[in-house]
Amino acid sequence: MKVKMAAQTLSSSTADAIQFLRSLEESTFKNSEATERFIRVIDRIFDFLNTRNPFGKGFKKPLYRDNIKEVENMIKPLVDYLLSLTDIKGIPIHSTPRKTFVIGFTVAVKSILNLAKELFIVTDYKYLLTYKFSQDQLEIFFSKIRQRFGHNNNPNVLEFRTAMKQLCVKNLITSSYAANCVALDNSCYDSIFVIRWKKRKSEEIIEDDDEEIPDFFSFENEVLTLIFLKIIFYTILVDL
Q1: Where are the strands (E) in the chain, listed by range?
Q2: Rounded CA separation 131/137 (Å)
Q3: Under a CB-based contact definition with an 8 Å cutoff, are residues 136 and 184 in contact?
Q4: Which CA distances in Å does 77 have to 53, 67, 81, 83, 99?
Q5: β-strand 127-128 against 63-64: which pairing, if any?
Q6: Torsion angles phi and psi, residue 65, rounded to 5
Q7: What is the mean pLDDT of the chain?
Q8: Which stretches make up the Transposable element P transposase-like RNase H C-terminal domain (predicted)?
Q9: Separation between Cα atoms, residue 169 and residue 22, nearest integer Å
Q10: pLDDT tens digits, residue range 131-159?
Q11: Measuring CA to CA, how many Å separate 200 from each of 65, 94, 131?
Q12: How far is the C-alpha of 71 from the C-alpha of 65, rounded, in Å?
């Protein structure tokens, strides 16, 4: 299942489009209120489970210590709505073979809320971004592993270990466009180990205005200057 496709289809913009076409009295969208409501419920639960901005509002607002009860009161009716869905025979969806999405959303919402309450007790976190609890990071990481080997979808242990080292040190490989998930923030492209060059202190740099500059650094000699620039360019290419 392509999660990104489902998220784009079951979105508020789709619900707005259905509402607009129904207001125009389009015959194909007659009695589509239930479909519109279902899409809005799924979209709001998606927003709650994918908060990424500390300054978000509405269902995209992160969990704070003082708003958990408020958010819980907003989300609970949505979960109750999913649990109340029935099929054409009147059997609850969560009791049929198609129960996966209902149970999945219910468990995810309840787990996030209970986990947030526990974390706010044992830690000094100011807020929680629910997107950090999703498995998108893992999906994108293994997508990069597959991208690393091109058409080879069955790497051996040595190849996999090499790819792991490269991604841990310098994470420049992007995930496939056809992957199940898309990166919603820059954290998916961060490396685990950060390499920083030690900066020299300003007092260690000795500047001597009286020192004579060699001729090959002089821009008066155009030939030597061109050679010098080519050497620098070649050195940079070798380092890359």
Answers
A1: 63-64, 127-128
A2: 9
A3: yes
A4: 24, 17, 6, 10, 18
A5: antiparallel
A6: -60, -35
A7: 77
A8: 131-165
A9: 53
A10: 888 887 788 777 777 777 766 777 788 88
A11: 44, 64, 39
A12: 11
